[in-house]
Each structure stands twice: as structure tokens, then as C-alpha cells.
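Hi Y.,

Following your request, here is the sequence exactly as I used it, all 189 residues.
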Amino acid sequence: MKKKMQLLFGFIIVIYATATGQRMENNDPIVKNASMPSIAKDATGNLTLVFTRANQLQYTVSSDNGITFSLPVTIDTLKDIFGVAGRGPQIVNTLNGLCVFAPDKAGNIYCYLKDIKGNWQKNGKVNDVAAVAKEGFVSVASYKNSIYAVWLDLRGNNKNKIVGSLSVDGGKHWLKNEGYFWQRYIETV
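Below is the corresponding structure, written out as C-alpha cells. Let me know if you'd prefer a different format.
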């Protein structure tokens, strides 16, 4: 696990790959100016990596435990997608396939699903009130087909609080957002 984490951090700035998936010998970068990678294993054991580059949400995969990665695929282009300072996309694996979360500076968290056939679909917003996740911090966890997402949320009094939502069908539908630590707790921290 430690070796895999070191490998991940080696890919934070530049992801190395070749069109054929062979190991690069000359260290020429194939992706420049990429940021905020998030990694997960898919159902077949491949390492999947999602990251931002400019306003693009991109995805790449490694079938050899991170030695090489495929050419990046653009999942979507989002105006003002977060990709700095711990704010950026997240990826998790479910029984239905991969699920990617992308926060934008307008305060929304978008959900994308990759089905078993390999097609990406934008599945709307996770936050049920628009423009409330302006910090761009989102954390996700999955188990089987359940996904839980939490984020800093400004709803109500325009002050941060921790809010989350649950999907029990692999990200296709999201339950009503729930607040956990409301403002009185945040003020004491």
C-alpha cells in the first residue's frame, strides 16, 4: 500500500503514459498542468485516476498497478472546476461501476457514472440546494452500491457546516442532504 501511495504522489503533477500502454523510457509527459488526482481500484482491479486540467475533468486507467496509464479521457468540461489546495474531483468504485464527483467554484458538486460498458454519464448534482458548496471540499466513501458524500455547505446562514448525502444505488439517485455539525460547532473549532 505504501508503494502505491508513493506512486500516486509521483503522478500528482504529471501522469506518464503511452498510447499503447507500454512503460515510458524517456519520461516525456503526456499530461501537463494536471492537478488534484484521486485514485480508486475498479471492479477488475485496475487503478483508476481522475484529475483536473484547466476546466476539464479527466480520467485515466492503469492495468499494471500504476506502472503505466492510458491516455487521459475527458469526462466533461466544467466552468471553474476546482483543482487546487485539496479541492478537486473524487472517485469511488461501486457494484454498478465508477462514480466521480467534481466540485465547481459556483458551489455545486456534480456526479458522473461510468457504467460497466465504459460510458460516462453526468448524473446531476449531489447537493440538493444550488451554490452551497463553494469551498469545494468534498469527501466520499463507498461500500458495495452505497456512496456517502460530505462537504462544507453554506445553506441557511451563509456559514460553513458539514452536510452530506447518501446514494444506495451507486450514485444514480441521492437522498435529501442532511446537516451534521451545524454552525455552533464550527464556530468553536
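The chain is about 10% helix and 40% strand.

Thanks again,
Q.
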